[in-house]
Amino acid sequence: MDASTLTPSVPVSQDGGPPTGATDGLRCRHDRPALAWPVPAGRETVLGVICHGGAQDEPRAAPEPLWPPHPVAERWQVRGPVRQGWWGSVRYCSNGAWVFGTACADDRAPGGMEAAAWRAYADLFTVLEREGCTHLQRLWNYLPDIHGLDDGLERYRRFNLGRARAFAEAGRGLGEGAPAACAMGTRTGALTVHFLAGRQPARTIENPRQVSAYHYPPRYGPCSPTFSRAALADLGGGLRVLFISGTASIVGHESVHLGDVAAQTAECLRNIDAVLGAARQHLVRSWSLEVLRERLECTVYVRRPTDLDLVRSVVTAHLGATTPAAQAAIYLRADVCRAELLVEIEAQVALDG
User: Is the separation of the CB atoms in 56 and 23 below 8 Å?
Assistant: First the structure.
């Protein structure tokens, strides 16, 4: 398959056969290279794509673009050729060192969201074992109707139960060492999990201002979320990338600034600064907080579209209006996993040392 026509994931048969209904892919007017490390001329290959917006003939869930006001995509690139594979609910590509894939599971089938989450992650872990890229680096979880109820329990909490079951059955820890991740609510689509994995483990980073998510008290559900606040991945050749998980207005484990979207946005950014500060001690070079902040690639999830201008103004003021970070930031409509939270920000920064 020509890498230039790599399409987003489509549903696949449960026996691991090829997909049906594939399209020519989403043509995006705005591409933001995610892992934009140098590659030799003519040998740059697309490993995977996360698309938001545009017509699609597949049931995957995706947040909707707010700014830029047109379909956007993140393209993940590697050196050399890649090969494509399918297994259960997962479609993926691999170059032998990295795997990028998407699981799409029907959360309206028997068992609901909990069964769909277990199925998506069980298939995902099978792919990682088959490809020899067993170390998850980053996950994007998109859940339709995240605050709805499945058998009397919020669907996000059902998702956490199914995800934790799959982690446990695969012999993976539910606490320290978990990958960076986000879990966002969408209006339509089936449960969709994008993932990036490699052959080497990432160094997980926690936020000193927050309780680790996997240590949340029972008031947030029968099973804590399975993710770390950030992960520092080694790309080889002296290059690394810091993946910062979806970050909300939480201090300790409490949601703060209820009802105030500007204050919540500012708190998200303070938490991201805290993660950057915690990561600096693990970097070879002496990066200043200001330089790290300017190099961020941010994705901002906004619950209410009417809040976009205010959220953008707070983010831009914090990052600096003329910085690459402010200019590259994208804004998507999505629901944060707690109903009282109005905004969430995830980010990544590529580093040479």
Answer: yes
DSSP 139-171: EEEEEETTTSEETTEEHHHHHHHHHHHHHHHTT
Question: What DSSP character marks residue 179?
Answer: P
Under 8 Å between Cβ of 301 and 329: no
Average pLDDT over residues 270-295: 93
The model's pLDDT over 286-303, given as tens digits with 9 standing for 90+, comes to 899 999 999 999 999 999
Enumerate the active-site residues: 344
pTM equals 0.88
Q: Which of 191, 178, 187 lies closest to 224 in space, CA to CA?
A: 178
pLDDT tens per residue across span 21-55: 222 222 223 355 444 444 444 556 888 889 888 76
Q: 286: which residues sit within 8 A by CB, 6+ positions away?
A: 280
Q: Which residue has the tokens 């990066």?
A: 287
* Residue 73 phi, psi dihedral angles, 5° rounding: -145, 150
Q: Are 66 and 308 spatial neighbours (Cβ–Cβ below 8 Å)?
A: yes
Structure tokens at 231: 């992960």
Report the distance separating Cα 107 and Cα 145, nearest Å: 10
Ramachandran category for residue 96: left, alpha or beta (phi over 0 → left; psi -120 to 50 → alpha): left
User: If 0-12 CB within 10 Å is exposed, 13-18 middle and 19+ buried, where does residue 20 land?
Assistant: exposed
Q: What is the distance, to the nearest Å, from the Cα of residue 242 to the centroid of all Cα atoms in its chain?
A: 13
| Contact predicate 16/87, CB 8 Å | yes
